[in-house]
From TrEMBL, chain B:
InterPro entries: MFS (IPR011701), MFS_dom (IPR020846), MFS_trans_sf (IPR036259), Proton-linked_MCT (IPR050327). CDD domains: MFS_OFA_like. This is MFS transporter. It comes from Nocardioides glacieisoli. Residues 1-441 form the Major facilitator superfamily (MFS) profile domain.
C-alpha cells in the first residue's frame, strides 16, 4: 500500500489531520499546563 | 448495495492511506472521553444525592460493555466494514449521552447506567475495534505504527474531554468553578453538557466514517488478498480462540493492564503518601494533580512510541520489555520510590507508558500470529482481558490498601504489598509472553489459505 501513486490532494490530507490534530493539541496543551503544577506546585 | 457496505467504500486508485489514521483518530479521540468520566463524579454524586460508589458503577458498566460488545460484535464489525461500524459506534455513543442526560434531568440513575453505561459502552466496543483491521490492511508494512496512532487517540480523547467538560459545565452553570476543591455543577448544567458532548462526538465520529476507506481489493473478504501471519497463518476468529497463543496473549494483556491500573487508580493520593512524614506530605494537592497529568501524557505517548518501535524490534521482544523491564521498574518503585520525587515520577512515567504501549501493540501482535483474515474480530475477543483487568486491578489494589488504611493518609511502606503483588502479576504475564509460539498449521483456514496463495501468485505473475 505505498503512497507512490497517490492522487489525493495534500490539502485534503492536511485538512483531515488538522481536524483531529487541533483538538488533540488543545488537550495536550491543557494537560501540560496541569502537569506543570508537578514542578511548580 | 448500501453506501455503508464494505464494497461501497473501496478506495479508488491513488487514495492516500494517510487519510485513514485521521478517520480512526476521529473515532478514538471521541470514545476516549470515557477515561475523563471522573470530571463528572462530584457533580453526579450531588445531583443524584448518592454515593461515589453508585456513580463509579457508570464507568465500570461502560468498560465491561466495551469488552463484551467488542468480543460479541467483532465478527460483525469485520464483515460489515469500518464505515458501518463507525456509524453504529457514533449512534450508540451519541444516544448513550442523550439517554444519560435524560437520566440526570429526571433524577433516574438507572437511565444513566443504561445510557452512558450500556448503550454508550456498546458504542465504545464497536468504535474501539472499528478502524483497527482496516489500518492493519492499509499499513501491512507498519501495523504497529498504524494502530499505535489510532489507539493513541483513545488516550488523547481523555486529555481533550476533561478540560472541555469543565468548560461546558461552567458555561451552563456560571457558579461552577472547576478549580475550586469540591466544586459541583448543577443537574441541569450536567444534563446540558451531556447533550452537547453527545452531539459533538456523534458529528466528529461521522466525519471519520465518511473519510474511511478499505484498501483496493478488500471490498469482499472472500476474494481479498490477506497478509498472513509470520508463519503464513490465516486463522478465523472462531478458531483463534481455540489456540493457546490467543489465551497466552489474553493473559499478557490482562497482566499488563492490571499492573498499570494499580498506579493509575491511586496516582494522586499515592504520590502524596510516598512523601509523607509525620502526617504531612511534601507533595501538594496541586502537584499531585500535575502528576496525574504527567501520567496521562505518558500513557498517550507510550501508545504511539512503543507500538511503532515494535515494527522494528518485533512484537514478542516489545512485550518482554513491557513486562520484564516493567517488573523491575515496579520493584524499584516499591523499594526506592520514596527516595526522591524525581525517581518516583520517572519510574511511574515509564511504567504507564508501557501500560499504554501494551494496548496499542496488541493488534499488530495478533496480525503476526493469526494474519489479517479476521484480525479485527480476534482483537475484539481479546479485549475481554481489558474488561476483566478493569475489574481485577482496582479490586486487588483497593483490597490490599484497605487493610492498611485510607489512601491519602498512608506512607510509602503501606504501598509495598500492593506493588509487590503487581510485580508478581507482571511476572505471570512475562512467562505467558515467552510461551507464545507461532500458531500450528492445524488452526489455519485451509480454504482461505489456498485461495490467498493463488491470489498472491497471480498478482506476482501479473507483475512480471
Amino acid at each position: 500500500m505505498s503512497d507512490d501513486t497517490t492522487t489525493t490532494s495534500p490539502a485534503v490530507i492536511a485538512l483531515a489531520w488538522a481536524l483531529v490534530g487541533i483538538p488533540l493539541a488543545y488537550g495536550l496543551w491543557q494537560t501540560l499546563v496541569k502537569a506543570s503544577a508537578l514542578f511548580t506546585g | 448495495m448500501s453506501r455503508l457496505d464494505k464494497k461501497a467504500i473501496v478506495a479508488g486508485p491513488g487514495y492516500s492511506r494517510w487519510l485513514i489514521p485521521p478517520a480512526a483518530l476521529a473515532v478514538h479521540l471521541s470514545i476516549g472521553q470515557v477515561y475523563a468520566f471522573s470530571v463528572f463524579k462530584n457533580s453526579l454524586v450531588a445531583s443524584f444525592d448518592t454515593s461515589l460508589t453508585a456513580i463509579g458503577w457508570v464507568f465500570s458498566i461502560a468498560i465491561v460493555m466495551l469488552g463484551l460488545s467488542a468480543a460479541v460484535l467483532g465478527t460483525w464489525v469485520e464483515r460489515s466494514g469500518p464505515r458501518k461500524a463507525m456509524l453504529a459506534a457514533a449512534l450508540c455513543w451519541g444516544v448513550g449521552f442523550m439517554v444519560g442526560s435524560a437520566g440526570i434531568a429526571t433524577g433516574q440513575l438507572w437511565l444513566l447506567y443504561l445510557g452512558y453505561g450500556v448503550i454508550g459502552g456498546i458504542g465504545l466496543g464497536i468504535g474501539y475495534i472499528s478502524p483497527v483491521s482496516t489500518l492493519i490492511k492499509w499499513f501491512p508494512d507498519r501495523p504497529g505504527l498504524a494502530t499505535g496512532m489510532a489507539i493513541m487517540g483513545f488516550g488523547g480523547g481523555a486529555l481533550i474531554a476533561s478540560p472541555l467538560s469543565n468548560k461546558l459545565m461552567a458555561v451552563y452553570d456560571p457558579d461552577f468553578v472547576s478549580t475550586e476543591p469540591g466544586a459541583v455543577a448543577s443537574g441541569s448544567a450536567l444534563a446540558s453538557t451531556f447533550v452537547t458532548l453527545g452531539i459533538v462526538y456523534t458529528v466528529f465520529m461521522l466525519i471519520g466514517a465518511a473519510l474511511v476507506r478499505v484498501p483496493p481489493g478488500h471490498g469482499d473478504d472472500s476474494t481479498a488478498e490477506h497478509s498472513p501471519g509470520s508463519n503464513g497463518a490465516l486463522v478465523r476468529a472462531s478458531q483463534a480462540i481455540r489456540t493457546p497463543q490467543f489465551w497466552f496473549l489474553w493473559v499478557v494483556l490482562f497482566c499488563n493492564v492490571t499492573a498499570g491500573i494499580g498506579i493509575l487508580e491511586q496516582a494522586a493520593p499515592m504520590i502524596q503518601d510516598f512523601f509523607r512524614e509525620n502526617g504531612d506530605s511534601s507533595v501538594t494537592a496541586a502537584a499531585a494533580g500535575g502528576f496525574v497529568g504527567v501520567l496521562s501524557l505518558a500513557n498517550m505517548i507510550g501508545r504511539f512510541v512503543w507500538s511503532s518501535l515494535s515494527d522494528r524490534i518485533g512484537r514478542k521482544p516489545t512485550y518482554v520489555m513491557y513486562l520484564g523491564v516493567g517488573l523491575v521498574l515496579y520493584l524499584l518503585l516499591a523499594l526506592f520510590g520514596s527516595s526522591s520525587t524525581f525517581v518516583f515520577v520517572a519510574l511511574a512515567v515509564v511504567i504507564i507508558s508501557y501500560y499504554g504501549g501494551g494496548f496499542a501493540t496488541v493488534p499488530a501482535y495478533l496480525k503476526d500470529l493469526f494474519g489479517t483474515l479476521e484480525v479485527g474480530a480476534i482483537h475484539g475477543r481479546l479485549l475481554t482481558a481489558w474488561a476483566a483487568a478493569g475489574v481485577a486491578g482496582p479490586l486487588i489494589v483497593n483490597g490490599i490498601l484497605d487493610t492498611v488504611g485510607e489512601p491519602g493518609n498512608l506512607v510509602a511502606a503501606d504501598y509495598r504489598p500492593a506493588l509487590l503483588t503487581m510485580v508478581g502479576v507482571l511476572a505471570v504475564g512475562f512467562v505467558a509472553n515467552l510461551m507464545i509460539k507461532p500458531v500450528s498449521e492445524d488452526h489455519f483456514d485451509d480454504d482461505a489459505h489456498a485461495a490467498n496463495e493463488d491470489r498472491i501468485s497471480n498478482r506476482k505473475e501479473a507483475l512480471r
